Amino acid sequence: MKVIKGICNGIDKFNDILGRVFSILVLGILGVILCEVVLRRIFNRPQIWTQDLTVMLFACYIILICAYGFQKKAFVAVDVIFAMLPQMAQHILHIITYLIFLVPFVVSLLPSGWSFFLRAYTTHEQTYSVWAAPTWPVKLCLFIGLALLAIQSVSEILKQVQAIVELAQGKKTLPADGKEAQ
Q: Considering the entire predicted model, what is its pTM?
């Protein structure tokens, strides 16, 4: 169990640090929007690149922060029936849903994300706007974000397995949602 806990802590720490670093992208998005507003409203000089850059930065932000959100349980969950189940059943259900939905999703998209990036990079693919920005940085972020989500998925599954083992041994464990009671 110490090995599983060590693996989970390492993955969680890694994604926590990266999630905090990637959060800074929001400031970049804010800066681009602020720049556009000032140039358009005060100087009457709108720019062709600000809309594209805002969309590209936001796309990168969303996919790169995904593993961090998964780790912190930041996603919406409808758990009306789930909350009524015993703790052991909740942990088992988490593992089943991760293995049926999350793992196949991430595993199928990872190779596609890589080839998506490679195609954009090798063909010098650009956006369709007048600015014609390269698309490969966003597509690289897609692959990196999916890889981080895959790594975090391993941690989340291992945490559920560890909780099941601890419950079976009669030890106190966290609830299946991973959040301590307030």
A: 0.89
